[in-house]
Amino acid sequence: MPVELRKNKSLIIEIAALIVLIIIMVGLPGFVFMNAPWNSEYRDYRVINLTAVAKDGVWTEEKVTNLNYWNRKFKPAGLELNRGEKVLFRLTSMDVTHTFYVPDLNIGPVEVKGGTVYEVPFIADTIGSFRYYCTTICGDCHYYMQGEILVSENNETPFQTSTVKITAEPLQSCDHEHQPELSGSFVETGYNLYTSLGCITCHG
């Protein structure tokens, strides 16, 4: 193999190794940040990341960013816990101010402002199905911003335990996918677009 070709191959390998190293150095801290508690007191807690999305009316476990916020519809979080499990809810908002509240489990109400992360520890010591809510008016999808926390005995299905039958109420979704009415005056067309596209969520 010519000397110049060997040098080029060696250079390519070094550059590739450097790129991999940079990816690891940048990505690993982010992964740890999102999946580990900040407070050492909660090191043995299961971390559940919940992001509030006003336009869809959901608290979701899905990854929400500035890039995908408007491009997809996020699913509400349905949380399944084991009795006695230690949980750390990590709450944040990608838009306006929300409030996370689970009245039957004495969680909150926790005000969650956009761009800030709030950690809420919780021990699941009661079996059952418990509804969580947003209790701050956050847009036209506010009513739909709720979901279920199901607590069951270890190794049993969340909907049926030895002592209690757990049923989750069906959730309705806030739908902006219908086609807005574009006929009529500019005012009527503007109003239909404003409401159907979810603009009202942030702009009132």
Give a quick summary of the entry.
This protein is an alpha+beta fold and 204 residues long. The chain has helices at residues 3-35, 186-196, 200-203; strands at 46-53, 58-60, 79-82, 85-93, 98-102, 107-112, 118-124, 128-134, 146-152.
Give a structural overview.
By secondary structure, the protein is an alpha+beta fold. The protein has two domains: 1-35; 41-152, Cupredoxins -  blue copper proteins (Immunoglobulin-like, Sandwich), CATH 2.60.40.420. It has three helices and nine strands. It has helices spanning 3-35, 186-196, 200-203; strands at residues 46-53, 58-60, 79-82, 85-93, 98-102, 107-112, 118-124, 128-134, 146-152. The protein has a five-stranded mixed β-sheet, with no helix packed on it. Strands 2-1-4-7 form a four-stranded mixed β-sheet, with no helix packed on it. Strand 5 and strand 6 form a beta hairpin. The N and C termini lie far apart (69 Å).
- Stretches where pLDDT is under 50 for at least 5 consecutive residues are 27-34, 158-167
* Major beta sheet, strand line-up: 3-9-8-5-6
Mean pLDDT: 77
Helix percentage range: 10-25%
Give the CATH topology of the largest domain.
Immunoglobulin-like
Strand residue percentage: 25-35%
Shape: flat
